Amino acid sequence: MTQSARRLVRSISFAVIGTLILQGGPVSAQQDEAKLDDATIVAIFDAANTFDIETGSLAATRAGSKEVTEFGEMIARDHRIVRQQGRDLASSLKVAPTPPSDFALAKAHLAAMRKLRSLKGPAFDRAFLQQEVDFHNAVIDAVTKTLLPAIQNAQLKDLVTKVAPAFGAHRDRAQNLLDHLT
Questions:
Q1: Domains of the chain, CATH where assigned
Q2: C-alpha to C-alpha distance for 140 and 143, rounded to whole angstroms
């Protein structure tokens, strides 16, 4: 994929995943922008981890290279741990995760999985790694600009702050693997 194509994909990902998804779509001019509450943030956090568990697990079985297979396994493992931490915290706080009413992130994930399932070997590796770079960029953007400022509960904010650097590490590893594919 060319550099300009990557920028376009990233721009679209940021625009869709980073803003509309987390806000549930555009808000009419007469309404105040809907505020995210902790229950919605917990649901988004859980979904983002679940989606990466699914893509990582798919990579573990479809990748063409050992490095991408191992990366997929690591992604799935790491996100299972973080998802469980979020679920445990939600349970202890008695917060019922409430996804946004128009959860476009789920729709984007289904489209990505459909595309990835249609690929194998080197084509899968490239598409999966690009998906991981774009997904993690969008999550980092959403966490820093939308989710963290909206979190009310200190324990939830601490958890999200604690795991945020792992999103950057996953993105960087995916980009490194993508840059070195043969």
A1: 37-179 (1.20.1260.10)
A2: 5
